[in-house]
Specification:
TATA-Binding Protein, single chain, alpha+beta, 5 helices
């Protein structure tokens, strides 16, 4: 009789333990790991010893989970790109220079002067930019293509608007999604902590050895090599960190491996 009670108690104890462990696993799965304050302070000290200044508020503490993303590119050749950008309207013109396009519309359709308005206008041209990555300044509009809430760094679009708000001209990089359904996300994994990347940054051959000041660190996606051909049907983008400096230079790192991708120094790409 007593043994039966003992077995029942043990079963209940193990059941409670299993529930606690399961809860812990679930919480771990849904809670992003973070970099502790001591690691941030140590990283800032190492940067300082290498003539690199930054404020701890600039360094993101959350360690994200992201994976590679494959896009089906609508721009397999210039003719296809032109048809995507113009929607088949012969009154609109498109020209190309290397990896960039130049678009003009002599009679643009009226567009509400708002981020959501231009988001829709860009989507009509095959350019998918979240409202968070659209900026309006007078008659100028700039945008970066994005996947969900993450920007694709090398896909900036610059546009000029007409009096009715419509897009009169635009220029930008060559990626054009073949519809939002063309996005395929690979298995996500925990990214390399930005603190590790910043320590690697101290040995970057293109940073100014006299001194740099890091003003912004962003997480998004990168093409890796911004001089790819314009005829790829499938384009893979990788999670990346963009480290921007007060000098105007910026440095791109693979956020999965921590490897250096390239730097932009005085508008010149350096590998």
């Amino acid at each position: 009789m007593h043994w039966t009670r003992v077995k029942t108690i043990l079963i209940l104890v193990f059941l409670v333990i299993d529930i606690v462990l399961l809860s812990s696993i679930i919480m771990t799965s849904y809670t992003a790991p973070t970099i502790d304050a001591t690691m941030i302070e140590d990283t800032i000290s190492i940067l300082g010893r290498n003539n690199i200044k930054t404020d701890k508020s600039v360094i993101p503490t959350a360690i994200q989970r992201m994976g590679m993303v494959e896009l089906r590119n609508a721009w397999t050749d210039n003719d296809k790109a032109a048809s995507v950008l113009t929607g088949g309207d012969a009154s609109k013109t498109v020209s190309f220079s290397g990896n960039e396009f130049y678009f003009t519309d002599p009679a643009p359709v009226s567009v509400p002067v708002s981020k959501d308005g231009y988001k829709q206008a860009f989507e009509n041209m095959g350019i998918y930019a979240d409202s968070n990555f659209i900026e309006i300044s007078g008659s100028s509009v700039s945008a970066k293509q994005s996947i969900g809430n993450s920007v694709i760094f090398e896909t900036g679009i610059s546009a000029e608007t007409a009096e009715n708000g419509g897009i009169a001209s635009a220029s930008g990089y060559w990626i054009l999604f073949d519809g939002e359904g063309s996005i395929s996300t690979k298995t996500a994994a925990q990214l390399t902590p930005i603190t590790s990347v910043l320590i690697n940054f101290t040995e970057n051959p293109y940073r100014n050895p006299v001194g740099e000041e890091i003003t912004l660190i962003e997480t998004g996606y990168s093409l890796g090599n911004v001089y790819r051909d314009t005829v790829h049907k499938l384009v893979s983008v990788i999670p990346a960190y963009k480290i921007s400096c007060a000098s105007g230079s910026y440095f791109m790192y693979d956020a999965m491996t921590g490897d250096f991708l390239y730097a932009n120094i005085n508008n010149e790409i350096m590998y």
